[in-house]
Amino acid sequence: MKLSNQAMGTLMMTLQKCLMEQSDITGLLSQLEFDVQDTELVVLNPPTLRFANKDSKEDDKKIMPKEEDLLGNA
Q1: What number of other Cβ atoms are within 10 A of residue 10's Cβ?
Q2: Residues facing residue 10 across a β-bridge
Q3: Bridge partners, 2 (sequence order)
Q4: Which of 5, 17, 35, 74 is the 20 to 30 Å CA partner of 57?
Q5: pLDDT of residue 71
Q6: Which of 28, 29, 32 is nearest to 69 (CA)?
Q7: Is the pTM of this model over 0.70?
Q8: Of the candidates 74, 55, 70, 6, which has an alpha carbon nearest to the alpha carbon of residue 35?
């Protein structure tokens, strides 16, 4: 069994986020749900990327939950 490109991208994005925030990756990884499709592992609930509209006054949108957001759900 191999990782699909989608699953690999999800894991890489999760790792990058945790490196940037200097946070533990295990909380985010434990939230991911995996399935096997055509002999490849895929993520059923990949994080959604959101960006603030350049013309908007809104703050930057969260890309993925922060570690402290997950601790409240434990």
Answers
A1: 21
A2: none
A3: 40
A4: 17
A5: 60
A6: 28
A7: no
A8: 6
Query: Cβ(25)–Cβ(18) under 8 Å?
Result: yes
- Please, where are the H alpha helices in 1-74? 5-21, 26-31, 67-71
> Please, are residues 26 and 36 in contact by the beta-carbon 8 Å criterion?
no
Dihedral Cα 60, 15, 47, 32, nearest 10 deg: -150
Place of tokens 């995996």: 34
- Model confidence over 27-72: pLDDT tens digits? 889 999 999 999 999 999 987 666 666 665 555 555 666 666 666 5
Q: Please give the residue that has the higher pLDDT: either 23 or 32.
A: 32
| Mean per-residue pLDDT, 13-20 | 86
